[in-house]
Amino acid sequence: MTETIPGLGQFDFAGDDHVVPFQVEGLDVRGRAVQLGPMLDAILERHNYPLPVARLVAETVVLTVLLGTSLKFEGKLIVQTKSNGPVDLVVADFSTPDRVRAYARYNEEALSIAEQNGLTEPQHLLGDGILAFTIDQGVHSQRYQGIVPLDGATLEEIAGVYFRQSEQIPTKVRLGVAELLDRDENGKPRHRWRAGGMVAQFLPEAPERMRQRDLHGGDGDATDVDADFEVDDLWGEASVMVQTIDADELTDPTVGTERLLYRLFHERGVKVYPPQAVYDKCSCSREKLRDVLASLSQEDIDHTVEDGMVSVTCEFCSTTYSFEATEVRPQ
């Protein structure tokens, strides 16, 4: 869809499921923004998660997409929570250049109790644990992993702590999820999900503008990360702007990513770059799962055999692969 925005001229809007890189030269800020629609629907619908779990998975997918599309090499970014709450595991991964998948594991009884007590915010669903960011460049490279405690009321707060501690770059993260109830082209009720997000980072060309001191050097606890950073005036202005974004703006299809960026930063000179599409596409395959099964012991294989067949269902895409037991016998 081609439209004209004053000050930006005429161009094609990215639309859903496209990440839009941007730069605000007047604030020394760079970032990425996205609105997710059909791709997110496909991920959530196949699992039929309870609403609080679906929202948590959606936020994790947005965060993963925003960060994964910034990778400049062939590899994978994995964003994962491990905790002791009703939702003890959420994982999303992005495989370059454009493949996304995600799933969550939860305890139905514990989740039901949490819902009855109105404890459905991320901090309640996750409980105590960690948020891990893993970058995998393949078998010939060592994995990099950054870990922070689940110390925050929202996923965007926790992610912000990670950037301050591990990446040492002033970063603002905004995430939003919306549940839509409307009707399809035949007038039948329809349930849809939308999500949006933005990551903005302070990346001045002049190193003296990055006035940080005593910054925590890596993973682990930090008692007060905000006290370790002397806020630059430009970054302070940018942070306030990003913080003013409402969740409805992040997910509203009538606003659009480029229009939202213009609303926020037009006075400072925002520039948008060509969007990058992302797709719901699992990396599982029959060959990969057969290799995994072949690595198991004979005893483990025997426990999974039923009527001479071994069946495995991918946790991400729910695809079931069936093998004859003779195919996966240990060598």
UniProtKB/TrEMBL annotation:
Domain of life: Bacteria
Keywords (A to Z) from UniProt: Chaperone, Cytoplasm, Disulfide bond, Redox-active center, Zinc
InterPro entries (UniProt xref): Heat_shock_Hsp33, Heat_shock_Hsp33_C, Heat_shock_Hsp33_N, Hsp33_helix_hairpin_bin_dom_sf
Gene3D superfamilies the UniProt entry points to: helix hairpin bin, Hsp33 domain, HSP33 redox switch-like
Pfam hit, one: HSP33
Keyword Cell membrane assigned: no
PANTHER family in UniProt: 33 KDA CHAPERONIN (PTHR30111)
Database matches in NCBIfam families: PRK01402.1
Protein name: Molecular chaperone Hsp33
